[in-house]
Specification:
The complex is a heterodimer of chains A (114) and B (113). Chain A has 114 residues and is mainly beta. Chain A has strands spanning 5-7, 10-13, 19-24, 31-38, 42-50, 53-57, 64-68, 74-78, 87-94, 104-105, 109-113. Chain A is globular, with a radius of gyration of 13 Å. The model of chain A has no long low-confidence stretch (mean pLDDT 95). Chain B contains no helices and eleven strands. In chain B, strands 2, 4, 5, 9, 10 and 11 form a six-stranded mixed sheet that branches. A five-stranded antiparallel sheet of chain B has the order 1-3-8-7-6, with no helix packed on it. The N and C termini of chain B lie far apart (41 Å). In chain B, a hairpin with a 2-residue loop joins strand 6 (56-59) and strand 7 (62-67). Classes of the chains: A mainly beta (114), B mainly beta (113).
Protein backbone atom coordinates (compact mmCIF):
# COMPACT_ATOMS: atom_id res chain seq x y z
CA UNK A 1 0.00 0.00 0.00
CA UNK A 2 1.57 3.28 -1.17
CA UNK A 3 -0.50 5.48 1.10
CA UNK A 4 -2.07 7.26 -1.89
CA UNK A 5 -5.81 6.74 -2.19
CA UNK A 6 -7.98 7.22 -5.24
CA UNK A 7 -11.73 7.12 -5.65
CA UNK A 8 -13.69 5.73 -7.29
CA UNK A 9 -11.96 2.49 -8.28
CA UNK A 10 -14.16 2.03 -11.31
CA UNK A 11 -16.30 4.42 -13.29
CA UNK A 12 -18.57 3.70 -16.22
CA UNK A 13 -20.15 6.60 -18.06
CA UNK A 14 -21.35 7.68 -21.47
CA UNK A 15 -19.84 9.86 -24.15
CA UNK A 16 -20.37 13.55 -23.58
CA UNK A 17 -20.56 13.22 -19.83
CA UNK A 18 -18.35 14.73 -17.15
CA UNK A 19 -16.65 12.90 -14.28
CA UNK A 20 -14.45 13.80 -11.32
CA UNK A 21 -11.67 11.61 -10.05
CA UNK A 22 -10.33 12.14 -6.56
CA UNK A 23 -6.91 11.60 -5.05
CA UNK A 24 -5.55 11.88 -1.53
CA UNK A 25 -1.74 11.99 -1.35
CA UNK A 26 0.44 10.28 1.22
CA UNK A 27 0.49 12.00 4.55
CA UNK A 28 3.01 14.84 4.38
CA UNK A 29 3.37 14.88 0.59
CA UNK A 30 2.78 18.29 -0.95
CA UNK A 31 2.97 17.38 -4.61
CA UNK A 32 0.43 15.45 -6.64
CA UNK A 33 0.74 14.13 -10.18
CA UNK A 34 -1.89 12.78 -12.54
CA UNK A 35 -1.20 10.16 -15.20
CA UNK A 36 -3.28 8.45 -17.87
CA UNK A 37 -2.58 4.88 -18.98
CA UNK A 38 -4.34 3.55 -22.04
CA UNK A 39 -3.71 0.35 -23.93
CA UNK A 40 -2.53 2.06 -27.08
CA UNK A 41 -0.53 4.94 -25.60
CA UNK A 42 0.91 3.60 -22.39
CA UNK A 43 1.55 5.89 -19.43
CA UNK A 44 1.36 9.62 -20.02
CA UNK A 45 1.95 12.46 -17.60
CA UNK A 46 -0.98 14.86 -17.40
CA UNK A 47 -0.34 17.49 -14.75
CA UNK A 48 1.48 18.22 -11.48
CA UNK A 49 0.44 20.31 -8.49
CA UNK A 50 2.52 21.46 -5.58
CA UNK A 51 0.89 22.83 -2.45
CA UNK A 52 -2.19 23.95 -4.32
CA UNK A 53 -0.44 25.48 -7.30
CA UNK A 54 -0.06 24.03 -10.78
CA UNK A 55 3.61 23.25 -11.32
CA UNK A 56 3.85 21.45 -14.64
CA UNK A 57 1.64 20.38 -17.50
CA UNK A 58 2.03 17.40 -19.74
CA UNK A 59 -0.25 15.95 -22.37
CA UNK A 60 -3.46 17.12 -20.76
CA UNK A 61 -6.38 17.84 -23.06
CA UNK A 62 -8.28 21.11 -22.81
CA UNK A 63 -11.37 19.08 -21.85
CA UNK A 64 -9.52 17.96 -18.73
CA UNK A 65 -8.75 20.09 -15.71
CA UNK A 66 -7.42 19.52 -12.24
CA UNK A 67 -6.96 21.27 -8.95
CA UNK A 68 -5.35 20.71 -5.59
CA UNK A 69 -7.23 21.85 -2.53
CA UNK A 70 -5.91 23.36 0.73
CA UNK A 71 -6.08 19.96 2.41
CA UNK A 72 -3.81 18.75 -0.44
CA UNK A 73 -6.27 16.33 -1.99
CA UNK A 74 -6.62 16.68 -5.72
CA UNK A 75 -9.38 16.23 -8.27
CA UNK A 76 -9.14 15.54 -11.97
CA UNK A 77 -12.15 16.65 -13.96
CA UNK A 78 -12.82 15.08 -17.34
CA UNK A 79 -15.54 16.61 -19.47
CA UNK A 80 -17.17 15.99 -22.87
CA UNK A 81 -15.93 12.45 -22.56
CA UNK A 82 -15.03 10.48 -25.66
CA UNK A 83 -14.57 6.76 -26.17
CA UNK A 84 -10.81 7.31 -26.36
CA UNK A 85 -10.74 8.67 -22.82
CA UNK A 86 -11.30 5.16 -21.50
CA UNK A 87 -8.17 4.41 -19.52
CA UNK A 88 -6.63 3.94 -16.12
CA UNK A 89 -6.02 7.24 -14.36
CA UNK A 90 -3.30 7.24 -11.73
CA UNK A 91 -2.48 9.78 -9.12
CA UNK A 92 0.96 9.88 -7.54
CA UNK A 93 2.44 11.98 -4.78
CA UNK A 94 5.87 13.01 -3.57
CA UNK A 95 7.09 15.13 -0.64
CA UNK A 96 8.18 18.32 -2.42
CA UNK A 97 7.74 17.63 -6.11
CA UNK A 98 11.48 17.63 -6.75
CA UNK A 99 13.02 16.02 -9.79
CA UNK A 100 14.81 13.18 -7.99
CA UNK A 101 12.04 12.28 -5.58
CA UNK A 102 10.33 8.93 -5.62
CA UNK A 103 6.71 9.18 -6.66
CA UNK A 104 4.21 6.94 -4.92
CA UNK A 105 1.33 5.84 -7.09
CA UNK A 106 -2.22 5.18 -6.05
CA UNK A 107 -4.24 2.14 -7.17
CA UNK A 108 -5.83 4.05 -10.03
CA UNK A 109 -9.34 4.75 -11.29
CA UNK A 110 -10.48 2.67 -14.23
CA UNK A 111 -12.68 4.78 -16.49
CA UNK A 112 -14.83 3.21 -19.16
CA UNK A 113 -16.64 5.52 -21.57
CA UNK A 114 -19.44 3.82 -23.52
CA UNK B 1 12.82 13.19 -31.36
CA UNK B 2 12.73 12.20 -27.69
CA UNK B 3 12.07 8.48 -27.42
CA UNK B 4 12.43 5.63 -24.95
CA UNK B 5 12.53 2.13 -26.38
CA UNK B 6 12.40 -1.02 -24.30
CA UNK B 7 13.26 -4.55 -25.23
CA UNK B 8 12.16 -7.21 -25.28
CA UNK B 9 8.43 -6.52 -25.44
CA UNK B 10 7.79 -9.63 -23.40
CA UNK B 11 9.87 -12.29 -21.75
CA UNK B 12 9.16 -15.69 -20.19
CA UNK B 13 11.65 -17.15 -17.74
CA UNK B 14 11.71 -19.95 -15.21
CA UNK B 15 11.58 -19.20 -11.52
CA UNK B 16 15.05 -18.85 -10.05
CA UNK B 17 16.64 -17.67 -13.29
CA UNK B 18 18.15 -14.24 -13.92
CA UNK B 19 17.09 -11.85 -16.66
CA UNK B 20 18.02 -8.46 -18.07
CA UNK B 21 15.68 -5.89 -19.53
CA UNK B 22 16.92 -3.15 -21.83
CA UNK B 23 16.06 0.51 -22.22
CA UNK B 24 17.51 2.75 -24.92
CA UNK B 25 16.70 6.42 -25.01
CA UNK B 26 17.23 9.37 -27.31
CA UNK B 27 16.28 12.02 -24.79
CA UNK B 28 18.01 15.33 -24.36
CA UNK B 29 18.72 17.08 -22.12
CA UNK B 30 18.76 14.15 -19.71
CA UNK B 31 17.82 14.54 -16.06
CA UNK B 32 17.19 11.10 -14.63
CA UNK B 33 16.06 7.60 -15.52
CA UNK B 34 13.64 5.53 -13.48
CA UNK B 35 12.58 1.93 -13.55
CA UNK B 36 9.09 1.05 -12.37
CA UNK B 37 7.42 -2.30 -11.71
CA UNK B 38 3.72 -2.43 -12.47
CA UNK B 39 1.53 -5.37 -11.56
CA UNK B 40 -1.51 -5.82 -13.76
CA UNK B 41 -4.22 -3.31 -12.90
CA UNK B 42 -2.17 -1.64 -10.18
CA UNK B 43 -0.12 1.53 -9.89
CA UNK B 44 3.57 1.53 -10.80
CA UNK B 45 6.08 1.08 -8.00
CA UNK B 46 9.44 2.81 -8.20
CA UNK B 47 12.44 0.46 -8.27
CA UNK B 48 15.37 2.79 -8.98
CA UNK B 49 16.14 6.38 -9.90
CA UNK B 50 19.47 7.23 -11.53
CA UNK B 51 21.00 10.54 -12.49
CA UNK B 52 23.61 11.25 -15.12
CA UNK B 53 26.53 10.50 -12.80
CA UNK B 54 25.27 7.16 -11.50
CA UNK B 55 26.25 3.92 -13.22
CA UNK B 56 24.60 1.34 -11.01
CA UNK B 57 21.85 1.27 -8.44
CA UNK B 58 20.43 -1.72 -6.63
CA UNK B 59 17.17 -2.40 -4.87
CA UNK B 60 17.19 -5.91 -3.46
CA UNK B 61 17.27 -8.38 -6.34
CA UNK B 62 16.91 -5.55 -8.86
CA UNK B 63 20.02 -3.85 -10.24
CA UNK B 64 19.82 -1.04 -12.74
CA UNK B 65 22.71 0.21 -14.82
CA UNK B 66 23.06 3.40 -16.80
CA UNK B 67 25.48 4.28 -19.57
CA UNK B 68 24.90 7.95 -20.27
CA UNK B 69 27.35 7.92 -23.18
CA UNK B 70 25.49 5.29 -25.16
CA UNK B 71 22.12 6.30 -23.66
CA UNK B 72 21.36 2.79 -22.53
CA UNK B 73 20.03 1.38 -19.29
CA UNK B 74 19.37 -2.15 -18.15
CA UNK B 75 17.45 -3.72 -15.31
CA UNK B 76 18.83 -7.01 -14.07
CA UNK B 77 16.64 -9.27 -11.98
CA UNK B 78 18.44 -11.92 -9.97
CA UNK B 79 16.96 -15.23 -8.83
CA UNK B 80 13.52 -14.42 -10.21
CA UNK B 81 10.39 -15.18 -8.23
CA UNK B 82 6.82 -15.72 -9.34
CA UNK B 83 5.96 -12.32 -7.85
CA UNK B 84 8.34 -10.67 -10.32
CA UNK B 85 5.75 -11.28 -13.04
CA UNK B 86 4.79 -7.75 -14.03
CA UNK B 87 5.46 -4.98 -16.52
CA UNK B 88 8.70 -3.08 -16.12
CA UNK B 89 8.64 0.47 -17.36
CA UNK B 90 11.63 2.68 -18.11
CA UNK B 91 10.99 6.40 -17.71
CA UNK B 92 13.34 9.22 -18.67
CA UNK B 93 12.93 12.75 -17.45
CA UNK B 94 14.27 15.71 -19.39
CA UNK B 95 16.21 18.45 -17.74
CA UNK B 96 13.87 21.20 -18.83
CA UNK B 97 11.86 23.77 -16.92
CA UNK B 98 8.68 21.73 -16.94
CA UNK B 99 8.05 18.10 -16.13
CA UNK B 100 8.80 16.61 -19.52
CA UNK B 101 8.80 12.86 -19.02
CA UNK B 102 9.09 10.16 -21.66
CA UNK B 103 7.72 6.69 -20.87
CA UNK B 104 8.82 3.46 -22.46
CA UNK B 105 6.17 0.98 -23.54
CA UNK B 106 7.38 -1.51 -20.95
CA UNK B 107 8.58 -5.11 -20.92
CA UNK B 108 6.08 -7.72 -19.82
CA UNK B 109 7.84 -10.36 -17.72
CA UNK B 110 6.31 -13.75 -16.99
CA UNK B 111 8.01 -15.94 -14.41
CA UNK B 112 6.95 -19.59 -14.58
CA UNK B 113 7.27 -22.21 -11.87
Amino acid sequence: DSGVTQTPKHLITATGQRVTLRCSPRSGDLSVYWYQQSLDQGLQFLIQYYNGEERAKGNILERFSAQQFPDLHSELNLSSLELGDSALYFCASSPRGLTQETQYFGPGTRLLVL
Amino acid sequence: KNQVEQSPQSLIILEGKNCTLQCNYTVSPFSNLRWYKQDTGRGPVSLTIMTFSENTKSNGRYTATLDADTKQSSLHITASQLSDSASYICVVRLNTGGFKTIFGAGTRLFVKA
